Fold this protein.
Amino acid sequence: LSSGVTISGSCKIGPNCYFGVNSCTADGIVIAENTFVGMGVTITADTEEGSVYKPEKVLPKEYKTPEMREF
């Protein structure tokens, strides 16, 4: 576990899991084996084995490339 990780209540955490800085879980969540929870991510439901959970990165329009502005 990294610094600033918050695990609420009783959670089951499988082996080989990683929690990034300031990530947190809700009460009663099951974190499956080999799960990566990125920095600042909040887990509110059980995870799938071998999954990666990352925060959405939002860039201001002026920093986006022309290809990215299409979205």
Q: What stands out?
A: Residues 23 and 41 are 5 Å apart (CA to CA). The first strand starts at residue 6 and ends at 7. The mean pLDDT is 80.
